């Protein structure tokens, strides 16, 4: 089944990875160039394509009824648009000089080379699996793909004592803990940090911990897992730290993800400090005119810190795909960077952040002031007003906004978008206080919480000089 030559036919685009970035790139390229001009072949090692990985915890928890609800476009729909999608086929080698990739069919075991004129690497990220005894035992799950989600649901159905341990308390760990509570499990979260949600400063993470404990989740902070202990049948039975053991029928690894770039590294392509592929503004792999990369396997520029970072989010992956497809299709588009915006929830508690945490600002040498304010999502007298805490970082002397974190009830999280725009525009907190934000009692107090925080921050930064 080799495809080593074109025989004078259309250009060939090969895509490695059939999810957000890869298939967005393929679809956008197809919109701009027809099959007679560009043939497109996409390889996906899993069983599904074009799905929302971010929705998996909500499917597992039952908020999303069916697995297929997370699938945006089926292989048949891609085929109808002239995109050849080869499922259960893993690319095992990239030959950049020969402009070809080696693929292996999971069902037949056969291997074959496919030539390309243009290549898109969209291999995504893999859950971190620490080198612990028992980490590969049955009953231990990462949650990154639909296949992972299905395996977890199968495991939950087999559990007898209904006890689960989540290792890690980032976005996935927190969301999966809530999903397991909905399945009637007793849930313990073992976290190496001082508070859950290390994407927040610890004082804001403390608010998340209280909400998790309110759901009945046991939080164990400042704890390092040393072993996954197994039963006589080989399945996971407990998670051990240096001082305690927590029984578990099911163990979820919520430690985070790393860019899946082993294939790119073997091909000699450039990687950054976080292990992600490095690209230019057009999402072309640096030093390669015929290779692009996007999604969770790349590093992106943080517009606030000025440093490259790994930000595995579906929003960026879809934008990367659109940009790559436009450039391959003959257009022009760039991805300038991110400000680090993310939202999540635990039960009714909404969690949001954008920009830098205190330790991020410290790391790049910025001097700053912090303010924290308490407010409500609506006018205090209006029914349904929910409490909200807003923390804001502003640079000393200049007053430039550096970061915002919000934890609160319904209506809290999406307020972070105002801060994200302000960060992108490099606004000062003084400028933010003058923003003409929408007001009516059902939606906001007369002074929106973002404006209240900005006013307080503006009084803390000094234009007169360093303190």
End-to-end span in angstroms?
69 Å
Q: Per CATH, what is the topology of the largest domain?
A: FAD/NAD(P)-binding domain
Please provide the count of β strands: 25
Q: How much beta, percentage-wise?
A: 25-35%
| Parts with pLDDT < 50 across at least 5 consecutive residues | none
CATH architecture descriptor name of the largest domain = 3-Layer(bba) Sandwich
**Helix- and strand-based class?**
alpha/beta
Q: What is the helical fraction, as a range of percent?
A: 10-25%
Question: Measured on Cα atoms, how large is the radius of gyration?
Answer: 24 Å
| The CATH H-level homologous superfamily of the largest domain | FAD/NAD(P)-binding domain
Largest sheet: 5 strands, parallel
Which of globular, elongated, flat, extended, rod-shaped describes the shape? globular
Mean pLDDT: 95
What is the C-level CATH assignment of the largest domain?
Alpha Beta
């Amino acid at each position: 089944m080799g495809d080593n030559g074109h025989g004078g036919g259309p250009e060939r685009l090969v895509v490695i990875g059939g999810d957000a970035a890869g298939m967005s790139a393929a679809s956008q390229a197809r919109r701009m160039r027809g099959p007679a001009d560009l043939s497109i072949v996409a390889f996906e090692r899993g069983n599904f394509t074009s799905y929302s990985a971010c929705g998996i915890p909500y499917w597992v928890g039952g908020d999303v009824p069916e697995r297929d609800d997370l699938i945006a476009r089926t292989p048949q729909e891609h085929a109808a648009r002239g995109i050849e999608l080869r499922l259960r086929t893993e690319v095992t080698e990239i030959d950049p000089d020969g402009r070809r990739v080696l693929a292996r069919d999971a069902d037949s075991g056969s291997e074959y080379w496919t030539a390309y004129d243009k290549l898109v690497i969209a291999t995504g990220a893999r859950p971190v699996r620490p080198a612990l005894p028992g980490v590969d035992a049955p009953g231990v799950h990462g949650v990154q793909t639909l296949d992972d989600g299905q395996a977890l649901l199968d495991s939950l159905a087999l559990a007898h004592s209904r006890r689960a341990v989540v290792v890690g308390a980032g976005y996935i760990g927190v969301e999966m803990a809530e999903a397991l509570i909905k399945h009637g499990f007793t849930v313990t979260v073992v976290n190496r940090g001082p508070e859950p949600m290390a994407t927040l400063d610890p004082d804001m993470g403390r608010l998340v911990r209280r909400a998790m404990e309110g759901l009945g989740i046991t939080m164990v902070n400042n704890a390092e897992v040393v072993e996954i202990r197994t039963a006589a049948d080989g399945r996971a039975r407990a998670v051990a730290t240096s001082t305690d053991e927590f029984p578990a029928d099911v163990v979820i690894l919520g430690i985070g993800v790393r860019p899946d770039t082993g294939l790119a590294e073997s091909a000699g392509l450039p990687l950054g400090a976080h292990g992600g592929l490095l690209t230019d503004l057009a999402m072309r792999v640096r030093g390669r005119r015929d290779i692009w990369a996007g999604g969770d396997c790349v590093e992106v520029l943080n517009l606030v810190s000025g440093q490259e970072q790994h930000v595995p989010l579906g929003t960026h992956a879809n934008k990367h795909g659109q940009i790559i497809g436009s450039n391959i299709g003959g257009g022009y588009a760039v991805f300038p960077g991110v400000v680090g915006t993310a939202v999540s929830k635990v039960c009714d508690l909404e969690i949001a952040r954008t920009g830098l945490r205190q330790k991020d600002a410290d790391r790049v040498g910025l001097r700053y002031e912090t303010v924290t304010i308490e407010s409500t999502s609506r006018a205090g007298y209006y029914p349904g007003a929910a409490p909200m805490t807003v923390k804001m970082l502003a640079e000393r002397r200049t007053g430039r906004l550096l970061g915002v974190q919000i934890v609160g009830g319904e209506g809290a999280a999406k307020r972070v978008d105002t801060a994200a725009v302000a960060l992108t525009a490099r606004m000062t907190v003084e400028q933010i206080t003058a923003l003409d934000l929408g007001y009516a009692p059902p939606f906001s107090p007369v002074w929106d919480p973002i404006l209240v925080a900005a006013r307080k921050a503006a009084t803390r930064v000094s234009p007169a000089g360093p303190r």
